[in-house]
Amino acid sequence: MLESIRLGKRAKNQLVSLKRKTGISNWNILCRWAFVLSIAEPSRPRRVTESLDEGVEMTWRTFGGEYTEIYEALLTKRCIDDGVPLSPTDMSQQFRFHVYRGIGYLAAGKRISNIGDLATLSTSNNLHATASI
């Protein structure tokens, strides 16, 4: 599966802002929220072509923690649903696209001002409304 996760400078800046707003101090926790929010969207994420210099890097194990296998299964299922080949390269790329989209949803919203706002997003009524926040 994936060995490491790299995100560019824009994603890093958005994560820094989210850390400040929510009080969540770990990149991996915010990236988990971002990934899950993105895969809840029925559309495929757009391709992101950004330099990965000066960004964020973490291992797949750090990203997933004790739930690594669950996140891997979610990504595999989503790739199958979207017709994306299950090669490590394609899956890694799709994972990054989903995390970027999810971070964008979280960072763009004016409603995210604390950790409680993230919890509110986890309700089923709000998952598909993230694009408007």
Written description of the protein model:
- The protein has about 130 residues and is mainly alpha-helical.
- The protein has a single domain, classed as DNA sulphur modification protein DndE (Arc Repressor Mutant, Orthogonal Bundle).
- It is built from seven helices and two strands; from the N terminus they run βααβααααα.
- The chain has a two-stranded antiparallel sheet.
- The termini are far apart.
In CATH, the homologous superfamily goes by the name DNA sulphur modification protein DndE
Q: How many DSSP H or I helices?
A: 7
Structural class: mainly alpha
Q: How many independent structural domains? A: 1
What is the helical fraction, as a range of percent? 55-70%
Main beta sheet: strand number and arrangement?
Answer: 2 strands, antiparallel
Mean pLDDT comes to: 84
Widest beta sheet: strand line-up: 1-2
CATH architecture: Orthogonal Bundle
How far from one another are the termini?
Answer: 32 Å
What order do the helices and strands follow? EHHEHHHHH
Rg on CA atoms, Å: 14 Å
CATH topology: Arc Repressor Mutant
Give the low-confidence spans. 124-133
Shape: globular
Number of strands: 2
CATH class: Mainly Alpha
Characteristic terms for this protein:
133 residues; mainly alpha; Arc Repressor Mutant; two-stranded antiparallel sheet; 7 helices; 59% helix
